[in-house]
């Protein structure tokens, strides 16, 4: 059976990502929020975030540490419903992200 070309491309990208040096998990999490979560309602469950991190080869402990620091530093808010946790950017972090998006995704000068 032939390998899935999309999965091969993802695997190749992940290998290059990890070869470039140690990932800054804090930055990866902020990027995930800014590029994916905010546009989809702004809230993500801890389980979904962990699944995504696992696919990016981020260790669970590294993700927990990054999340704790982001909460402590006022970047994200932890929401609890029973035993389930979810996260969302704080209002100030969302504003900062919107301001940065204009620079990050601006067209390159000619």
H/I helix tally: 5
Number of separate domains = 1
**Mean pLDDT over all positions:** 84
Helix and strand pattern: HHEHHEEH
How widely separated are the two ends? 45 Å
CATH first level: Mainly Alpha
Which range best describes the helical content: under 10%, 10-25%, 25-40%, 40-55%, 55-70% or over 70%?
Answer: 55-70%
Q: Quick one: biggest sheet?
A: 3 strands, antiparallel
Name the CATH architecture.
Answer: Orthogonal Bundle
Estimate what percentage of residues fall within beta strands.
5-15%
For the record, what is the CATH homologous superfamily label?
Winged helix-like DNA-binding domain superfamily/Winged helix DNA-binding domain
Count of DSSP strands: 3
Give me the side-by-side strand order of the main sheet: 1-3-2
Please state the CA-atom Rg, rounded to the nearest Å: 16 Å
Helix/strand/pairing category: alpha+beta
Query: Which blocks of ≥5 consecutive residues have pLDDT under 50?
Result: none
- Shape by Cα distribution: globular
- The CATH topology comes to Arc Repressor Mutant, subunit A
